[in-house]
Amino acid sequence: MEVPCIAVPRADGEESRQALATAGVLDDDHQIVVENETLYIPVTDPTAVPDRFETTIRELPARQTVQTPADILGYEPSLERLGDVVIVDEDDSDRADEIAAAVIASDLPVRSVLNRASKIKGELRVRDWELLAEREDPDTDRSPTETVHREYGHEFLLDLAAVYFSPRLATERHRVVDQIEADERVLDMFAGVGPFAIPAASRDAEVVAVDLNETAIDYLRENARRNGVSECITAVSGDVRAVADDYHGWADRLVMNLPHSAGEFLETAVDLAGEECVIHYYDIQHDSDPFGPGIEAIRAAAEPEYDVGVETEHVVRSYAPHELNVCLDVRLTRS
Questions:
Q1: What is the pTM of this model?
Q2: What is the DSSP string of 161-203?
Q3: What is the structure's pLDDT at 185?
Q4: Which of 14, 118, 136, 167 is the most exposed place for a label (fewest CB within 10 A)?
């Protein structure tokens, strides 16, 4: 059936789909089709599509009805999907088991269901997990906590039991990466499995990715290989403070995504900064003054050696009651 749709590059598919959903014009009755690295995403009302998209007409198949966990349960459970893993956060064990059974019985392409069993803890920022249910998959020998997450045209292999990863930051990561230009020298001070570093390298930046978690660095190297950017990334296992001397004055751009304690690494960031350097500084602060403490800390570390210019004050998400996860995009220019 011919229906109105937009045509976008495959790498922009998730961002475009979310934009259409936000605008209320995403057509859920027809399937998204990919052809020659172009995605055709159906829309309900071409006249209400955001101006940055051009609409066209194309024959798209009707979406097949699938059975969801909500269909089985009779209520909408709180779920988070990460690749072929579904995550729940339930204190009630009976309810957790009920949800897990419904997920496995549904048509979702899921291999395992995990329940959060602890808060994020330790220097490596990992948590414990309870395996609630698992669907047999003869095509893989991956553990139930290991999965492949796809984000803005890149894929990331990771083990939730061994590394920190948040799919909720996908839009924020894309916002930062979209600012990177070819030949920039980018240093990710807390790189994890590479969700900032690998897209940066795909934009032809030279990337150094550092993380204290040796397992995360192993995954980062594998993910660089999977995404075809191994030659553009130097992956370093260790405390970024211990390797700073090797990259003194090197960076054009620094990513500091360690919100609770990034301030402890600002002196190192200044040491890594080149003549001009943009810092993406992540912080958790009270909503009464979410940006002031971070700006003050950056100025204290960088001035008078650098002039400090705040380019963006950005709220990433709500973190807790009256607490915000924020990002400051700050440009340092040597005085």
A1: 0.80
A2: TTS---GGGHHHHHHHHTT--TT-EEEETT-TTSTTHHHHHHT
A3: 98
A4: 136
